[in-house]
C-alpha cells in the first residue's frame, strides 16, 4: 500500500508551446515598455470621466455578478479539498424497549408482566479514502485553477465595463462637439441668408439665390435634433453601466478637445501573456481541464476507503463510560470497476476532447491579444495623422469661407460659389470632430488591448499549481472592486 501511495497517473500542467512574435507589426517603436497604470483613465484628465468610472466600479451589475462567481469558486475549492482529509463524525443514541410476558394460572386466568430494556451508546466514526492515484488531489487542483479563472474573468469584466464607460463618454463628447458645430454653422448660414435677402432687396440677388441659401439653412437646422437625440441616448446608456437609473446621471459632456491623450508603448509581445486577464483566464481553464483528465484516468483504478469507529455502549447512563462498555472497529473497503459499458472510457475521451477545445481557445486568445494591440496601434497612428491633415483642411476651408462671404457682401462673387464653400467648411468641421473621436477611441482600445494596467499576480504560480498552493487553497485578491 505504501508503494502504491506513491503512484500518480497524472502530470503537472505545463504551458503549451506558443508561436510568439518578436515585435508588433503596427510600429517599430515598441521595444520600450510603458504599460498602462492601474488607474490609466486618469491620464485623460477628465474629472467627469473619473467620477463615472468610480461609480461603475462600485455599482455595475456585471461586476457584482462576477465577484459573486469568485466567491462561488472559492467555496468549490473548499468542497473539492474535503476528501483529502478524514471525515469524522460523532454520534449518540438511547433506546427503550418494553417486552410483555403472559403467564397462565388455571382455566381462563392469568397474569401479565413485562421487562424494560434500556440501551445507550456514544462514539466517534472516521472514514478516509486513500488517494493512491492522485484523483482527489487532481479534483482539488482543478477547483483551484477554476478559482483562478473566476478571478481573471472578473478582472476581464471590470476592464470591459471601464472601457465601455470611457467609450460612451467619448462618444457623448463628440456628439456635443458635433452639436456645437451644427449650431455654429446654422448661425453662419442664417447670417449669410440675411445678406442675400439684403442684396435681393437691392436688386442684386434673385429668388433662386434666396431659395438655395434657405435650403442650406434648413439642412443645418435639421441636423441639430439628431445630434441632440444621440447625445441624450449616450448619457442614458451611462445609467446601466454605472448601475443606477439614467435620471441620476448628472454629468454633462464638455468637448473632446479638452481631453488629454497620454501616450503608451506596448513593450514586447511576450509580456502580453501576463498582462491580459482574458488570456490568463483561458489558460486557467486549460489548466483546470488538464487536472480533470487525471480525475477521469483515476476512475479506472480501484478506490480504497478506510472506516474506523470507537465508542461506548451500556444498559444505563451511569454505566456507559466504562472499560467493559468500550467498542472499536476498523474496516477497509475496495471498489474496482469491472464492466461499465464504456462509461469510464467515454468520460476520459470527453475530458481529452474538452482539453483540446480549450487549448484551441487559449491559442486563439493569445493571437487575438496580439491582433488587438496591432489593430489599436495602427488605428492610433493613422488617426493621429488624419487629425493633423483634417485640421489643415478645416483651416483652409475657413479661409475660403471668410473670403467668399466678404466678396458676397461686396457683390463680386455668385451665391453658388459661396454655398459650395460653406458646405465644404461645415463638412470639414464635422469630419474633424469624428476623426478626434476615432483617435481617442484608438487610444482607449490600446489601453484595453494591453490589459488596462492588469498584471498576473505572483501568487498565481503560473505555469502549474504548486503543492503549497493546492494545500493552502486560493488566496488571490479578487480586485480593487471588492471590500
The helix/strand order is HEHHEEHHEHEEHHH
Read across the widest sheet, the strand sequence of neighbours is: 2-3-5-6
- First-residue to last-residue Cα separation: 48 Å
Q: What is the CATH class designation? A: Mainly Alpha
Helix content: 55-70%
* Poorly predicted segments: 1-6, 461-483
CATH topology: Outer membrane efflux proteins (OEP)
Mean pLDDT: 83
Structural class: alpha+beta
Strand percentage, roughly?
Answer: 5-15%
Number of DSSP helical runs: 9
The largest β sheet comes out as: 4 strands, antiparallel
Into how many domains do the coordinates divide? 1
Work out the number of β strands: 6
CATH superfamily: Outer membrane efflux proteins (OEP)
CATH architecture: Up-down Bundle
* Gyration radius over CA: 38 Å
**What sort of overall outline do the alpha carbons produce when their principal axes are compared?**
elongated
Task: Please characterize this protein's 3D structure.
- The chain is of the alpha+beta class and 483 residues long.
- The protein has one domain (10-88, 149-298, 346-472): Outer membrane efflux proteins (OEP).
- Helices cover 56% and strands 13% of the residues.
- It is built from nine helices and six strands, in the order αβααββααβαββααα.
- Strands 2-3-5-6 form a four-stranded antiparallel sheet, with no helix packed on it. Strands 1-4 form a two-stranded antiparallel ribbon.
- Strand 2 (87-104) and strand 3 form a beta hairpin.
- Helix 3 packs antiparallel against helix 4 (135-201), helix 4 (135-201) packs antiparallel against helix 5 (207-242) and helix 5 runs parallel beside helix 8.
- It is elongated.
Amino acid at each position: 500500500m505504501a508503494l502504491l501511495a506513491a503512484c500518480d497517473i497524472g502530470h503537472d500542467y505545463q504551458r503549451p508551446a506558443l508561436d510568439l512574435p518578436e515585435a508588433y507589426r503596427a510600429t517599430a517603436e515598441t521595444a520600450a515598455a510603458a504599460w498602462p497604470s492601474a488607474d490609466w483613465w486618469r491620464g485623460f484628465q477628465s474629472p467627469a470621466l473619473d467620477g463615472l468610472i468610480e461609480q461603475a466600479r462600485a455599482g455595475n451589475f456585471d461586476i457584482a455578478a462576477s465577484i459573486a462567481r469568485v466567491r462561488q469558486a472559492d467555496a468549490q475549492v473548499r468542497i473539492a479539498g474535503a476528501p483529502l482529509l478524514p471525515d469524522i463524525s460523532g454520534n449518540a443514541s438511547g433506546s427503550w424497549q418494553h417486552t410483555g410476558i403472559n403467564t397462565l394460572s388455571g382455566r381462563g386466568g392469568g397474569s401479565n408482566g413485562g421487562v424494560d430494556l434500556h440501551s445507550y451508546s456514544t462514539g466517534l466514526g472516521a472514514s478516509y479514502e486513500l488517494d493512491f492515484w492522485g484523483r482527489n488531489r487532481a479534483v482539488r487542483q482543478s477547483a483551484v485553477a477554476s478559482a483562478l479563472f473566476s478571478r481573471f474573468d472578473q478582472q476581464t469584466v471590470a476592464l470591459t465595463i471601464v472601457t465601455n464607460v470611457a467609450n460612451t463618454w467619448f462618444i457623448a463628447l463628440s456628439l456635443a462637439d458635433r452639436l456645437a458645430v451644427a449650431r455654429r454653422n446654422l448661425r453662419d448660414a442664417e447670417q449669410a441668408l440675411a445678406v442675400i435677402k439684403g442684396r435681393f432687396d437691392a436688386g442684386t440677388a434673385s429668388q433662386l439665390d434666396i431659395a438655395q441659401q434657405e435650403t442650406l439653412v434648413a439642412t443645418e437646422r435639421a441636423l441639430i435634433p439628431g445630434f441632440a437625440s444621440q447625445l441624450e441616448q449616450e448619457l442614458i446608456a451611462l445609467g446601466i453601466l454605472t448601475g443606477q437609473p439614467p435620471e441620476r446621471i448628472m454629468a454633462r459632456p464638455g468637448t473632446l478637445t479638452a481631453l488629454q491623450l497620454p501616450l503608451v508603448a506596448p513593450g514586447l509581445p511576450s509580456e502580453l501573456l501576463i498582462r491580459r486577464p482574458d488570456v490568463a483566464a483561458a489558460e486557467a481553464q486549460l489548466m483546470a481541464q488538464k487536472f480533470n483528465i487525471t480525475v477521469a484516468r483515476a476512475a479506472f483504478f480501484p478506490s480504497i476507503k478506510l472506516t474506523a469507529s470507537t465508542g461506548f455502549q451500556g444498559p444505563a447512563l451511569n454505566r456507559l463510560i466504562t472499560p467493559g462498555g468500550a467498542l472499536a472497529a476498523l474496516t477497509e473497503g475496495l471498489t474496482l470497476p469491472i464492466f461499465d459499458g464504456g462509461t469510464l472510457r467515454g468520460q476520459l475521451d470527453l475530458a481529452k476532447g474538452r482539453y483540446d477545445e480549450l487549448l484551441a481557445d487559449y491559442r486563439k486568445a493569445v493571437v487575438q491579444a496580439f491582433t488587438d494591440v496591432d489593430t489599436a496601434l495602427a488605428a492610433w497612428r493613422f488617426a493621429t495623422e488624419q487629425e493633423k491633415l483634417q485640421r489643415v483642411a478645416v483651416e483652409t476651408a475657413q479661409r475660403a469661407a471668410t473670403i467668399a462671404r466678404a466678396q458676397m457682401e461686396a457683390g463680386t462673387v455668385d451665391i453658388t460659389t459661396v454655398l459650395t464653400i460653406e458646405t465644404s467648411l461645415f463638412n470639414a468641421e464635422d469630419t474633424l470632430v469624428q476623426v478626434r473621436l476615432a483617435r481617442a477611441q484608438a487610444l482607449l482600445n490600446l489601453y484595453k488591448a494591453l490589459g488596462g494596467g492588469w498584471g498576473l499576480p505572483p501568487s498565481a504560480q503560473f505555469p502549474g499549481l504548486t503543492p503549497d498552493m493546492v494545500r493552502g487553497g486560493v488566496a488571490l485578491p479578487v480586485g480593487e472592486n471588492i471590500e
